[in-house]
Write a structure and sequence with these properties.
By secondary structure, the chain is of the alpha/beta class. It folds into two domains: 270 residues, TIM Barrel, CATH 3.20.20.70; 89 residues, Golgi alpha-mannosidase II (Immunoglobulin-like, Sandwich). It has eleven helices and 16 strands. The strands form three sheets. The protein has an eight-stranded parallel beta sheet. Helix 5 links the parallel strand 3 and strand 4. Helix 9 packs parallel to helix 11.
Length: 375
Amino acid sequence: MIINKPPMGWNSWNTFGWNINEQVVRETADYMVESGLRDAGYEYVVIDDCYALRDRGPDGRIVPDPDKFPSGMKALSDYVHSKGLKFGMYSCAGIMTCAWYPSSYDKEFLDAQTFADWGVDYLKYDFCNFPKTADPRMAYTRMAMALKATGRDIVFSACNWGEFEVEKWIRSAGAHLYRSTGDIGERFSAVLNICNSQYEKMRYSAPGCFNDMDMLIVGMDGVGNVGHPGLCGDTEYKTHFALWCLNGQPLMMGSDVRRLRPEMLKLHTNKDLLRIDQDEECRPPMIAGKVWDNRPSYFKHLSDRQFVLAFFNFADEPGNSDFRPWNIGFPTTAGFGMNLREVFTGEVVGPVNDYMSVDLAPHDCCVFIGEWVAL
């Protein structure tokens, strides 16, 4: 099984945490179809931790909590599939999950078969309560083998938070994507800390195995398990989503999508940003301007001879972000310039063949898709 582009979908943890249940999942699947999210590319509906009973059943298998999931996981999976979506579940490489539910350490093959029997298409595999004497590389390799042994195609999302230099070995361990950071929260500082920690890791992300900077907080509006009222507004959501797309990240929505404001639905389905995220070449960006004052710019190659030029202001006051062509090896005497189209406003700029500066409000961004043009 080959994953050529970063997965897109929804995960229950950021908003629902312990309060996940069958009704939420069914209504989320319904909304993803009705709103156009499915057609925009969001295809996975993933249940995170806290879905099971505290003890395994007599046969040793994980048992879904019948109060939360009265129809059972197979019936719920069938419902999600009937909507043209794919179904995802959660487990953990440790002896218990992060919320102290049954986990898959030393039970990888049994649990993988259970997930396959439920019709699972995606497995998020966490790292809590992992024995200090155990080898994480072997633990993730075992689960990759167990998933393949079921005969079902299941996307394997490894989530060990960037520990043990995971980016250097997780591809060979069989994962399709891997978390390289700690958990996100609904704070702009968390978005920046995660993004800034990835400069040396993005080189390892490519078709087949993608770097994962955690789920999206776009549109949470302070509600839910990792919600923080008042710490993120529409500008911060805009910049967060643009950064994840620029870096070619898996786009797993973490909000209660049933209650997304129209502005947030529009952001999630911005065709230009999704085109950047899902570009078939999956190249990481390079720094094109100053980073020392929290106002960086980036250049990113796209397929079809296009590229991205993106400007950010991470600072808490207005300022300018600039493009310095010499930082990407672009000679101003080349006889070529860049025609640019901004992805939020549609503004056209160009041709540009020299220094460029953009004034930005605090925490704001400006993202252009460009093409080369002879001068």
